[in-house]
């Protein structure tokens, strides 16, 4: 069987069996197309029909979540958990609470998670979950009651050596706390069934910072491969949540100047450098729009979303040396990378999952003087540190911030090394998308072959 024909057949089957799931199809297309050199070299992956199986979740669960709001009215939402692949370890992947969450979103995130977790070198499978519940605008009581209702079904799926969810968009320490409390009540167990826990009850130091810190560590390795560093670089960052905030923090520590952040209302351009303390106060304490930022930073500029040109994410119009998208999927389009490139940007690493559309990826790949770090490699720091939290829970130990950060830095360096060396092995030195996809897939595929047809 020809490799290209095999891959095309699998993608056609996804179109038939996952109708309307455009993001899952996009994620599968991106990964599977880059696997063709591996499949052509080693026929065992086709003979064992690994690709047919790896695109199918091992288990998909949907349920109704009903809670009472503050008006004593019942409100119902969908709950999801897609347990995609357990070849390397227990399912691992976050829970997202956002009105855009549906089965398509959860499947694309879970599929990406398989290979991201593989790249960390830790024993973790891939999964993802969440709900179309929106925590924004809800009271503390409503959020607590929703999390408890959500966990009444979730608890049957999870466990410290079975399935270990973490947080994601809309799910932070508060939500994990409410879910863990209900899990403990329902099971009578105090174990590592969830990560992102509070520091006093099993959480890990550096977990909050991990995705942003890891992104910057990966970007630093990427630049070092061409003899450059972050020192003195102007960096455009999107997002204003946990990932973006700690990306900004680590950029300053590495000698770079972050000049933008964004949220659902618009973006800030601060040529003098983003005021980290002000950003944290607005987004983590006051939970307000970035429009508040310019009240205290008079030289900064706020551009509202209403002023964006159609089809453009205007944060990428700011001239910069490096771009780090940290908001959401498909936030970087072809038009965006064309503008970035024209303005002198020569590196982009993804802090959000599947930040770039397929045509944007092709543009970056075709520019031989442009560095591109795909999400499954560049933003793996969060799940890597969740894996380190699992290890601490299992051993009933607590490591220092410095110990965790050192391990995180080492993991991100190894991820870059594996992706880069794999790109060299397959004749495309520096193609980190190909390198990361093949390196991550190969570990999972070999484990699936070893474990038989199950």
Provide the descriptors you would attach to this structure in a database record:
454 residues, alpha/beta, seven-stranded mixed beta sheet, 12 strands, globular
Layout of SSEs?
Elements: H1 3-17, H2 22-34, H3 36-41, H4 44-47, H5 50-54, E1 59-68, E2 74-85, E3 91-97, H6 103-120, E4 126-131, H7 140-154, E5 163-167, H8 173-187, H9 210-224, E6 234-237, H10 242-253, E7 257-263, E8 266-269, H11 276-285, E9 301-304, E10 322-324, H12 334-342, E11 347-349, H13 358-366, E12 371-373, H14 375-378, H15 381-395, H16 401-425, H17 432-450
Parallel strand pairs: 3-4, 3-5, 6-7, 6-10, 10-11, 11-12
Antiparallel strand pairs: 1-2, 2-4, 7-8, 8-9
Structure, described:
The chain has 454 residues and is an alpha/beta fold. It has 17 helices and twelve strands. The strands form two sheets. Strands 9-8-7-6-10-11-12 form a seven-stranded mixed beta sheet, with helices on both faces. Strands 1-2-4-3-5 form a five-stranded mixed beta sheet, with helices on both faces. Strand 3, helix 6 and strand 4 form a beta-alpha-beta unit. Helix 9 crosses helix 10. The radius of gyration is 21 Å and the shape is globular. It starts with a helix and ends with a helix.
Quickly describe the structure.
With 454 residues, this protein is α/β, with parallel strands linked by helices. Helix content is 46%, strand content 15%.
């Amino acid at each position: 069987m020809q490799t290209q024909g095999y891959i095309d057949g699998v993608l056609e089957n996804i179109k038939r069996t996952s109708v309307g799931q455009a993001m899952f199809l996009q994620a599968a297309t991106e990964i599977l197309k880059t696997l063709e050199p591996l499949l052509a070299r080693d026929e065992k992956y086709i003979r064992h029909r690994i690709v047919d199986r790896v695109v199918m979740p091992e288990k998909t669960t949907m349920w109704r979540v009903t809670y009472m709001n503050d008006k004593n009215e019942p409100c119902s939402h969908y709950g999801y958990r897609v347990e995609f692949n357990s070849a390397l370890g227990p399912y691992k992947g976050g829970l997202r609470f956002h009105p855009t969450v549906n089965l398509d979103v959860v499947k694309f995130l879970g599929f990406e998670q398989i290979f991201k977790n593989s790249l960390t070198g830790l024993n973790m499978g891939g999964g993802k979950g969440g709900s179309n519940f929106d925590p924004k605008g809800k009271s503390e009581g409503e959020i607590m009651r929703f999390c408890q209702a959500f966990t009444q079904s979730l608890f049957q799926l999870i466990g410290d050596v079975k399935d270990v969810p973490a947080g994601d968009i809309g799910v932070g320490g508060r939500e994990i706390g409410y879910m863990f409390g209900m899990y403990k009540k329902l099971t009578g167990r105090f174990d590592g069934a969830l990560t992102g826990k509070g520091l006093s009850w099993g959480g890990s130091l550096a977990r909050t910072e991990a995705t942003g810190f890891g992104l910057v560590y990966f970007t630093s390795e990427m630049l070092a491969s061409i003899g450059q560093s972050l020192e003195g670089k102007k960096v455009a960052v999107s997002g204003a949540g946990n990932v973006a905030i700690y990306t900004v923090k680590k950029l300053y520590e590495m000698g770079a100047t972050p000049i933008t952040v964004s949220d659902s209302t618009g973006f800030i351009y601060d040529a003098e450098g983003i005021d980290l303390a002000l950003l944290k106060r607005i987004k983590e304490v006051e939970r307000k729009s970035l429009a508040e930022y310019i009240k205290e930073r008079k030289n900064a500029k706020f551009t509202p979303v209403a002023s964006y040109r159609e089809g453009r994410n205007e944060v990428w119009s700011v001239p910069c040396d490096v771009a780090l998208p940290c908001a959401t999927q498909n936030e970087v389009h072809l038009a965006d990378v064309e503008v970035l490139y024209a303005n002198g940007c020569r590196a982009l690493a993804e802090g959000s999952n599947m930040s770039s559309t397929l045509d944007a990826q092709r543009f970056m790949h075709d520019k031989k003087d442009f560095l591109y770090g795909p999400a499954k490699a560049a933003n793996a720091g969060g799940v890597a540190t969740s894996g380190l939290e699992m290890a601490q829970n299992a051993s009933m130990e607590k490591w220092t911030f410095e110990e965790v950060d050192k391990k995180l830095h080492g993991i991100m360096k190894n991820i870059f090394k594996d992706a880069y060396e794999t790109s060299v092995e397959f004749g495309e030195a520096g193609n980190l998308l190909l390198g990361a996809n093949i390196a991550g897939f190969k570990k999972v595929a070999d484990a699936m072959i070893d474990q038989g047809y199950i």
